[in-house]
Amino acid sequence: MKKIFYFLSVVILCAGCNVLDFDETSASYSREDMITSFDNIAKLLTNVYGFMPNKDIADVSSALRDCGSDDAEYADPEASVQRFTNGNWSAISTVDDKWELFGGIRAANDYLELVWDDAKKDIRDDVLENLSLFKYTSKYARNMEKLACGPYEARVLRAYYFFELARRYGDIPMPLTKLTVEEANTIAKTPFNEVIDFIVAECDEAAAHLPKTFVGMEGDEIGRVTQGFALAVKAKALLYAASPLFNTTGDKAKWQKAAAAAKAIIDMNYYQLDPAEKANNYLSNEVVLAICRSESQSFERYNYPVRFTYGDRTSMAGSYPTQNLVDAFQTLAGYDITLTSNGWQTDDPNFDVTQPYEGRDPRFARAVLANGMTFKGSTIETYVGGRDYSKTRSDLGTVTGYYLRRYLIEDVDFTPEAQVKAKHQWIIYRYAEALLSYAEALNEYLGSPTATDGTFTLSALDALNQVRANAGMPDVTAASADAFREAVRREWRVEFAFEDHRFWGVRRWDIGLSTQGQIDGVQITRSGNTFGYKRVTVEKRTWAPKMNLYPIPQTELFCNPNLQPQNNGW
């Protein structure tokens, strides 16, 4: 935090739709200059947005963060994401260090200090006077309408950045003004629960002033913070606060608050479950907020089966699904199916174990590429000797027997002289998350998946089964709270595979000791037209309860002793 400077960062956004368009400005602008026009004020706000997930979709080096969970393994054994699973992780050797988000918080504080008068809860008088020069322009009314939303957008973004920090570090500093270097080096930590209380209050106030959509306002912009996202940040924060990692006493009142927050999103009656794929589909009625990116090939370069990259991938890369994850996807009839050392096991009488990747939960084929599936007009061959098989990591192919499917765009092409790029969109929040949050929280609050009361008229079971029905899966029939807890955790895993949930779910549920010790893959052999399947160990992993939270970077502790104590175990 000691070296956070004001700057205007370029946000990489989709072409073809209006998404917070702005141009980079020069350092010649003074602070006073930045509040003299609508355009300059918009640039200040876009700078706050610039700290949202905005790199390649790959979030840790070139790996998905789920490679730090039991859902995936990254090909390169030396990649930084491996520290999550091999124990080579410390306050000196950090991974996914998001202390940089204090830059986004500083940008939000700067914007609010320049634009917002907290005493009168309105735009500052000097800003309004400056902008009155544009009073007779054709867009003045629409620009003023959008300007009125800006401070609330900034406050929700700041709240979201506080949440991202809190779920990593627990107790965190919570600066609400621009800090001097001296202040930054002495600020103390705010307890986790107080951070959550602040997030909730900010999101409540902002939601009352934000629109459901910015389409219809000046610019028809997509990708802005809306009422729905304000409620989503609140719901997410309260769900984490209620979860076992942070709710060590099992306080049911915390689960009640989490259920009510998720219910508020449901009660908007604005978002809808979408049976189609939501990845790379920011226009889906299910998507509450997605981050759009410009055309690229890098995600496909890392994650395509290597033969489709035509030599563009020359080093070990790729986030590869594990057998652990594959086993979470039931048969289409709702039966569990597990691969053992002796082949597939299931109680589904109609399931063909010789075709184990057919007749599965339809979400499986959206998340995972498996042997026999069709991709880019070709059949995937991960059996021993197949075109997509890798004997060792240095073969540049799968290390688990599976390839990633989610977020890959098949139109991307590496054919020499005919290469094609495509736009990607990373989903930050979608409606299915509200339903599963509600289902999980209500079950814990009322102690039964079928219970309802005067406030919560939709049962936890019915909420979860809405998500399953949308995916084409039969209802869950879990009768007890314990059985339903396991069912909803499975649903989180399969519904949001590779959408950055499993990594955090393992932590907030405090289940790492039982889930993170080993990852497995599949070895497939072929004899004529018959395939044999065997579960194989890919990697033994290291887990300790301290890994539920990140260590505070040692560089920050050196600069600011008030950040002590270090998180437990580090």
Portion in helices: 25-40%
Compute the CA-based radius of gyration.
Answer: 24 Å
Distance between the termini: 20 Å
Q: Segments where pLDDT lies below 50 for 5+ residues?
A: 1-26
- Give the CA-based shape: globular
Mean pLDDT: 92
Per DSSP, the total helix count is 18
Q: What structural class do you assign from the helix and strand content?
A: alpha+beta
Overview of the structural elements:
The protein is α+β, with helices and mostly antiparallel strands and 570 residues long. The chain has a domain at 1-58 and 96-188. Helices cover 34% and strands 10% of the residues. The chain has 18 helices and 14 strands. The protein has helices at 38-49, 83-86, 101-115, 125-131, 140-169, 181-184, 192-207, 227-242, 252-267, 298-303, 323-326, 363-367, 431-446, 460-470, 481-495, 502-508, 512-515, 554-559, and strands at residues 72-74, 116-117, 122-123, 287-292, 319-321, 337-340, 343-346, 368-369, 374-375, 378-379, 403-404, 425-430, 518-527, 530-540. It has a two-stranded antiparallel sheet with strand order 1-5. It has a two-stranded antiparallel ribbon with strand order 2-3. A hairpin with a 2-residue loop joins strand 6 (337-340) and strand 7. Helix 7 runs antiparallel to helix 8 and helix 14 packs parallel to helix 15 (481-495). The longest helix has 30 residues, at 140-169. 46% of the residues are buried.
